[in-house]
């Protein structure tokens, strides 16, 4: 009898163990447990400190030359713009193609040459800044400052040329 009882208990345990392996663990409903994406942090990583740009003698020399060109262009543009404005005002009542109109257009062409020089300089400064970023170098304050001055000067030149152009009769 003891043997039967032991066999019955072992058969019952074996059946319980085997049937638990067949139990369904997948539910048709989603789990309410947090997913891996929900456990991560969305905070921005903090950088210790932005690396300061190390002095670059070659870049400083180049920037000094560019700054001189920018200053020279600015100092030459102002009197040329005043002269072009006087020529445009003198040509205001005349016909398109008259001597005064041609003189005003010539003066505007000189202004456009100054604007082209400034535009080329700003483009060069942009390329330098892009090159530093491409090489994963930190921003260079002197370059950024000169680039800002160049952008402002270019905008002022474009606006002044447009004002003078508006004084002339359209061709």
TrEMBL record:
PROSITE patterns: PROKAR_LIPOPROTEIN. Keywords: Signal. Residues 1-25 form the signal peptide. This is Uncharacterized protein. It comes from Sphingomonas populi.
């Amino acid at each position: 009898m003891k043997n039967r009882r032991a066999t019955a208990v072992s058969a019952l345990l074996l059946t319980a163990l085997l049937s638990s392996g067949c139990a369904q663990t997948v539910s048709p409903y989603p789990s309410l447990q947090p997913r891996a994406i929900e456990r991560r942090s969305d905070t921005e990583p903090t950088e210790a400190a932005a690396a300061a740009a190390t002095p670059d003698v070659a870049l400083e020399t180049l920037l000094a030359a560019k700054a001189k060109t920018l200053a020279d262009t600015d100092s030459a543009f102002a009197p040329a713009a005043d002269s072009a404005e006087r020529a445009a005002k003198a040509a205001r009542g005349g016909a398109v193609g008259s001597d005064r109109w041609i003189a005003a257009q010539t003066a505007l062409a000189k202004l456009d040459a100054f604007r082209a020089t400034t535009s080329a300089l700003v483009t060069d400064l942009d390329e330098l800044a892009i090159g530093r970023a491409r090489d994963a170098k930190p921003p260079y304050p002197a370059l950024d400052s000169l680039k800002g001055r160049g952008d402002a000067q270019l905008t002022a030149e474009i606006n002044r040329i447009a004002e003078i152009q508006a004084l002339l009769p359209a061709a």
